[in-house]
Amino acid sequence: MADTELDERKVKILNAIIKNYLETGEPVGSRTISKYTDLNLSSATIRNEMSDLEDLGYIVQPHTSAGRIPSDKGYRFYVNNLIAEKDKEVSDMQEWMIEKTEKMESLLKNVAKVLATNTQYATMVTAPSVVSNRLKFIQLSAVDEKQVLSVVVMDGNIVKNKIINVDKPLDNETMLKLNMLLNTNLNGLAIDQINLALITKLKEQAGIHDEIISQVLESVAETITEDDDLQVYTSGATNIFKYPELSDSKKASELLDTFEEKQSLVELLSDKSAGADENAIQVYIGDESPISTMKDCSIVTATYELGDGVKGTIGIVGPKRMDYENVVDNIKSLKGQLDKLLKNEGKDS
Amino acid sequence: MADTELDERKVKILNAIIKNYLETGEPVGSRTISKYTDLNLSSATIRNEMSDLEDLGYIVQPHTSAGRIPSDKGYRFYVNNLIAEKDKEVSDMQEWMIEKTEKMESLLKNVAKVLATNTQYATMVTAPSVVSNRLKFIQLSAVDEKQVLSVVVMDGNIVKNKIINVDKPLDNETMLKLNMLLNTNLNGLAIDQINLALITKLKEQAGIHDEIISQVLESVAETITEDDDLQVYTSGATNIFKYPELSDSKKASELLDTFEEKQSLVELLSDKSAGADENAIQVYIGDESPISTMKDCSIVTATYELGDGVKGTIGIVGPKRMDYENVVDNIKSLKGQLDKLLKNEGKDS
DNA sequence: ATTAGCACTCCAATTAGATGAGTGCTAACA
DNA sequence: TGTTAGCACTCATCTAATTGGAGTGCTAAT
From residue B314, how far is each of B109, B270, B275 by CA, in Å? Predict the structure, then answer.
């Protein structure tokens, strides 16, 4: 549709306006464009074209007799073209990051940090959602008379533990039996494969200890789903102060608040409403954002995968005039690396 | 010393000035004090006294012909008196918080949050330092051929795990033996009790598996000390926007940065230089702060204990005109609860 | 279709008063 | 001797008026 209403010259001018605005953050006038582009057109001509572009809704004037700035529609046009263009290459950088992959947690923290440093925007990364991730290992151990420790290891060496209280001590034999039972039946299963039938079967086999099994299972489920909703690592939130249009006290405070609160970030990152292609990079511009405190921002998100199921999400929040090109590149690169890193289960330590 | 250079009337006036400034955040003038206090003195007299107080360094004028605001020395005087006065009572509130004590981590997050909500300042809490904390339980398990999972449980149910790579698979028997060895020798020991002699002894007993033992021990040490330095939970950092004197773009950005970076917070919270009494509440006012970005803030910290050794620290950062009284009360109350909660090892779930 | 020229608009920065809270000092008073 | 009233003075803050300049829209000429 854009192709029909914009001729080539308008596209060029629009791009020039946006690029210039991305750099300066100031409204851009006709004279600037007249020189900035290689079109060799006078400012007057540019003015006419700009007037058209404004009518079409791609740019707006903050006030009469100011330059133009891109509207959300303008940004959208720019981004769409950009992504279409860039969808081939996935560069390899930041390899160094992989060294420090001791734990999922520190890995993700690092990812957020690297991304924030590279882009100078605020970033966030969700921990892989364990849905459709596979169990690798389960172990119960008696810590003392009344406490049992359950350790669950998932693919990708995500380890979770939980302490369960029991009424009376479990003897060694029972412990062994339960461990055997759990491992033989559950190993290699994805979470959503643990259904009621399986649970019933397990309980039967546990005999008089069925109650313990159910407690354990409950705790396993709990262990896994627990506060997965809350596992978001953020970094570079204070970068927003680098952009005057976001750093007035009220806006900055609200923004930083949502970054600290994290809950709404989870919702944002797990938002599947808009995007058709699950696997692609999502861009929310201004009002497109599902979070009201980010109406003046743009958000770029992408999901990374592990094994078969969809896993986690990385996201970047910045001003609308963010350097989409750089951001998309960075996210793609990181996404690629995470995919690779997490699928390769041999790698760990 | 303060007693010698300040007579009772000056103290009253100084207190009045500080209290008023705590409320308003505006420089306070002589007329205000003249009415505010029950001294029945004219503004002129107050002016004379204020002039004296300024000479003595307790208050300063932001500029000629403005009211006075407390200097760091003034705050210090106020705080010293305050704490001396309040050192008896430890109130009990926020009992509800205890319910959610599933894990140390979420507990501490909650502590930070509660404190931030109650005080409206920025707060931070360090995880208990495991030095001189006792080992309760160790378990090694083979996850697959090349990976061994080590789980370490400390007093207070702090659980840490780590995956160790091994060259060749360990058979069940060896595993059992190693577990036995580790648990019989190490359980109940504090970290600093695991010395070279003990390690040598363990290795000897492990026979041909001494290398594995040393790997495991290394990993245990690593597991425990790992990034304990980095375990700081913060909350309410954005509260600083509530205080105009801190919320100009530059200051706010720097402050929030140190809160995000966390590393310097660790140093701050583990700073033992100033305070004589380890167990008391520490107050840093303005320049007394070891962190340069907090020169315009005041910081209140306190340590909480578990078992025998010193444990973690809680801290509050706010404007110099913070409500010291409320803050101290809150910290004391929380400190008391944490002490109680963590010492009582029966409680868990 | 493009361009030069010009009047017009409006933001942003500057300046000039005006305001008022607060001080320091002096002189009078109890 | 300590306290108070009075007064001149300072200085941040607020308001309004002034200005400069960037940028536009329109028109007429090329």
Answer: 11, 10, 15
For chain D, which bases have at least one atom within 7 A of a protein Cβ? 3-6, 9-12, 21-27
Exposure string for B66-91, b = 16+ CB within 10 A, e = fewer: ebbbbbbbbbbbbbeebbeeeeeeee
Residue given tokens 């990374």 in the structure block: A304
Helix (H) or strand (E) holding B107: helix B104-119
Per-residue pLDDT of A209-257, as tens digits, reads 776 677 667 766 765 665 555 578 999 999 998 888 888 888 889 999 9
Query: How far is the C-alpha of A194 from the C-alpha of A111, rounded, in Å?
Result: 32
Paired sense of beta strands A59-60 and A232-235, if any = unpaired
Tell me whether residues A227 and B159 touch, CB distance under 8 A. Answer: no
Say yes or no for a CB contact (<8 Å) between A237 and B260: yes
* Residue-level length of chain B: 349
CB < 7 A from strand C, the residues are A 40-42, 44-45, 48, 63-66; B 26-32, 43-44, 47, 50-51, 54, 61, 65-68
pLDDT tens track for A250-296: 888 999 999 998 888 988 887 766 555 566 788 999 999 999 999 99
Q: Cβ of B175 under 8 Å from any chain A Cβ?
A: no
Q: What residues in B contact A155, CB-CB < 8 Å? A: none
For residues B130 and B46, the model is more confident at B46
**Closest nucleotide (CA of A29 to C1')?**
D23
* Residue count of chain A: 349
**Interface touch B139/A141, C-beta < 8 Å:** yes
Dist CA B114 CA B117 (whole Å):
5
Give the span between the Cα atoms of A217 and A135, in whole angstroms. 13
Which of A147, A172, A186, A235 should be substituted to probe chain B, the one whose Cβ sees the most B Cβ atoms within 10 Å? Answer: A147
| Shortest distance, CA B268 to any CA of chain A (angstroms) | 21
* Dist. CA B284–CA B282, nearest whole Å: 7
**How does residue A119 score in pLDDT terms, banded at 50, 70 and 90?**
very high
The pLDDT score that the predictor gives to residue B226 is 54
Q: How confident is the model at residue A306 (pLDDT cuts 50, 70, 90)?
A: low
* Contact state of B137 with A157 under an 8 Å Cβ cutoff: no
Indicate yes or no: CB of B141 within 8 angstroms of CB of A139. Answer: yes
**How sure is the predictor about B250, in pLDDT bands with cuts at 50, 70 and 90?**
confident
Res B349: pLDDT: 34
What is the Cα gyration radius of chain B?
26
Determine which helix (DSSP H) or strand (DSSP E) holds B59, and give its type and residue range: strand B59-60
Quote the pLDDT of residue A174. 84
pLDDT at A97 over 70: no
Query: Would you give the DSSP letter of residue A249?
Result: H
Mutation target to probe the A interface, by most A beta carbons within 10 A, among B117, B143, B187 is B143
- What one-character-per-residue DSSP string does A191-246 give? GGG--HHHHHHHHHHHGGGHHHHHHHHHHHHHHHHTTGGG-EEEE-GGGGGGSGGG
